[in-house]
Amino acid sequence: MERTLTILKPDCVRKQLIGAVIDKIERAGFRVVAMKKTRLTQATAGEFYAVHRERPFYGELVEFMSSGPCVPMILEKENAVADFRTLIGATDPAQADEGTVRKLYADSKGENIVHGSDSAENAAVEAGFFFSAEEVVRVD
Ligand code: ADP
């Protein structure tokens, strides 16, 4: 079993797509082991995406990710990191495969509905960013 960290981004929450996206996630075989609704500040969004600090879109990304509530989740499945990235599709919805979350619901490269960790190591770091040990409970 592997874990990945996703965030249903502020555009997902604004468009009232939380349920639709979680439905796709569960149907694809992922188990939700932790979930909350929260709002990042500019400081915490900046910290979460610190690896992109030098990129031209960093300011826009921090602005967007702190623009409203989001829903971080820890998901579990065999091969969770890679399978989740397949489920959500390419960063740019115009490049994303048919049927992927971003192809279905995203408006642009920046406002692209969901985050998905790019490695198991980063997933663990990102999970710790949002959740305490007591909040990570798989009961099934
Ligand atoms: P992914 O989320 O698909 O792993 P990246 O790690 O490359 O993509 O980028 C992180 C996030 O930064 C993206 O999901 C998107 O919200 C934003 N982003 C990436 N590239 C751009 C861009 N060219 N313009 C605006 N926002 C971008």
UniProtKB/TrEMBL annotation:
It is an enzyme of class 2 (transferase). ATP binds at K9, F57, R85, T91, R102, N112. GO terms for molecular function: ATP binding; metal ion binding; nucleoside diphosphate kinase activity. It is found in: Cytoplasm. The active site is at H115. GO terms for biological process: CTP biosynthetic process; GTP biosynthetic process; UTP biosynthetic process. InterPro entries: NDK-like_dom (IPR034907), NDK-like_dom_sf (IPR036850), Nucleoside_diP_kinase (IPR001564). Its EC number is 2.7.4.6. SUPFAM superfamilies: Nucleoside diphosphate kinase, NDK. It catalyses: a ribonucleoside 5'-diphosphate + ATP = a ribonucleoside 5'-triphosphate + ADP; a 2'-deoxyribonucleoside 5'-diphosphate + ATP = a 2'-deoxyribonucleoside 5'-triphosphate + ADP. Residues 1-138 form the Nucleoside diphosphate kinase-like domain. Its cofactor is Mg(2+). Coiled coil: none annotated. NCBIfam families: PRK00668.1, PRK14541.1. Homotetramer. This is Nucleoside diphosphate kinase. It comes from Chlorobium limicola.
